[in-house]
Amino acid sequence: MTVLSVTGLKVRYSAKGPEILKGIDFEVKSDDFLAIIGPSGAGKSTLIRAVNRLVEPTAGEIILLDHNVCDLNAKQLRELRRNVGMIFQEFNLINRMSVMDNVLSGRLGYTGNMRSLFRMFPKEDVDQALYYLDRVGLSDHINKRADELSGGQRQRVGIARALMQRPKLLLLDEPTSALDPKISREVMGLIRDIARELKVPALCNIHDVQLAKEFCNRIIGMQDGYKKFDGATETLKDSDLEEIYAMEVL
């Protein structure tokens, strides 16, 4: 089953500015953990953010969960975004809030403003948050402030928060770039295992090719806004990587 279908996607940030994405086509199936690799400036982060219109497409079509994202009005877009969990490289946590409150903020799209202001979340949501915090190994840190945590712990909070949306697609924007190699591997393994457990496909922009090859079943290689490779991880050859990274300045 196809969860996401992108056709002819183009993005430029201003009318006279350079084109960042130059006609990208790809699909995400229901069992995919798909990595996007490529040198800095290839358009990887722009591609991730265009999927749910955090970046506005210039041209093309994005069919997400049977909806054309490019045609949605503001209300329809908010409703669709409920189904998309995002995990960011900067963690995007509220430092002064507790771990528990940060995770529960993943339900804000379903909870009225007054109820969320006074932390009046349904018991079902609280129980779900406790489950995910245990699942990511943070059950002993529930009442800590987010700024008291290490980088790896903060990213685990971000994972739990994204899962609280009960997403039908996960978008990962450089989820390990701020982490050391050991913690990066742990975080990628955790995301992959939970995604499999919940049967949620994931689209992951990642700078570390080795992590992509180790944890993802499919890889898209990008260079200068173009797609250079799209296939199963085991089919990615050294020659493909040489072409993808040919323009990178070392």
Explain this structure to me?
With 250 residues, the chain is of the alpha/beta class. It has two domains: 1-83 and 168-250, Rossmann fold; 91-166, no CATH class. Helix content is 34%, strand content 25%. The chain contains nine helices and ten strands. The strands form two sheets. It has a six-stranded mixed sheet, sandwiched between helices. The chain has a four-stranded antiparallel sheet with strand order 2-1-4-5, with helices on one face. The longest helix is centred in the last third of the chain and has 18 residues, at 181-198. The N and C termini lie far apart (40 Å).
Task: Provide key terms for this protein.
Rossmann fold, 6-stranded mixed sheet, 250 residues, 2 domains, 9 helices, alpha/beta, 4-stranded antiparallel sheet
- Note the total helix count: 9
Beta strands, count: 10
Termini Cα gap? 40 Å
CATH-level-2 architecture of the largest domain: 3-Layer(aba) Sandwich
CATH superfamily of the largest domain: P-loop containing nucleotide triphosphate hydrolases
Strand residue content: 15-25%
Keywords: ATP-binding, Cell membrane, Membrane, Nucleotide-binding, Translocase, Transport
Protein name: Phosphonate ABC transporter ATP-binding protein
InterPro entries: AAA+_ATPase (IPR003593), ABC_transporter-like_ATP-bd (IPR003439), ABC_transporter-like_CS (IPR017871), ABC_transpr_PhnC (IPR012693), MetN_ABC_transporter-like (IPR050086), P-loop_NTPase (IPR027417)
Organism: Aliiroseovarius salicola
